[in-house]
């Protein structure tokens, strides 16, 4: 086998995905980290979650096989580190990935962790087990995995149908915890059992989530905190006022807008705040299999009508990024360069010219000044969704589309769009790793649960496979850029902007760092501590 063995993780890897922070003094044991949560997740099961509202509170309960180095601000293939796996290697044909597993790890209920748990987890994700996940948003990630086979209790192999270098990146996502074989998927929704630094205590819907320190954590001496408590406060202004008043130690990660960040700094000048890209795109989803949006002229008109700069200026005071499917550079590794992006219809700077072209397309579809298209614009009941949805409705008026805002609660939003029970929507798509395979297969492949628009182009899907197998990064980038351009030209899911957002914490909170290209890859807080 070709050796790509990784060294074992050193003690005290920070598993909160953020940028480097200098610690003052020695870490202290004890204390409860108090944080508000932006809304009430549907349940506690990360494998079934389609939002980081689940990752943030529950990732600390679990471990992955591998994880991104949480001290390095930008996730990349070079920053992968072992976790429940001690090491890994690829076969010479790049079609078999084998992990040697860590021994002596226990689940929170005292049962031992073995290779059987890894197999059970991925059989669940691939839909091969008798027990089923209620929702399986990331099943498409593992479409090229033929099977997962144990070799004794502490070795496991992923056997692939063809080479897929990005498999490691997806295994390192915050969405890929290892579940125990002996706990049912139903029980994991209400009382998750993991191997991580914190044990689940309780989840009261619309009230709070509580975790407590795991005294038997396999990383000796960690975590430093005695526990973490999340108070669910959907109103962002109310939550921020409570943070400023000292009722919380930290805001919900990457939840603060640029204007609100200025308010926090004016009222709590000692607060530590950072702004980073979130690897979350704000986009339009259209039910392209139903009239009137089965007409590509209408979809293209909507894309041409967008004034992306206005969204960025209004919502972010200029601090957000315009791009295609992949996160724009320099934080994004795979995003299109600006000169290529501006060759796509609708991305050029002349908004008025774009809208005149859009009006012609709408008139060809049978609409005009005397016949407007009335639609409901569905979106999730969070400020991050509602605010851009209002701007979108205003901009669509310029091309004879009259939108009515349809606000949907979080627990219902993802099931609703997965059922295609909508006409037009304003959506946020969080990419849990900065890798094309994750984005392309999950959001654009025919039949994927997260392909909310019913977009299906078999020719482009073949190109997904071509780029996926390319080992040379520079060659792969060119392939990815060409695919991304085609997706935008096809109006598969028009991207409006890529958000930047702030996170703040009180100055006595130590060990916090914020990731620049994915806010989904570490909220374990295992070496966060309070210097009170």
TrEMBL record:
Subcellular location: Periplasm
Native source organism of the sequence: Bradyrhizobium zhengyangense
Family: Belongs to the bacterial solute-binding protein 5 family.
CDD domains: PBP2_NikA_DppA_OppA_like_17
Signal peptide: 1-24
Residues in Solute-binding protein family domain copies: 80-448
Entry keyword Signal: yes
Annotated Pfam families: SBP_bac_5 (PF00496)
Name this protein carries in UniProt: ABC transporter substrate-binding protein
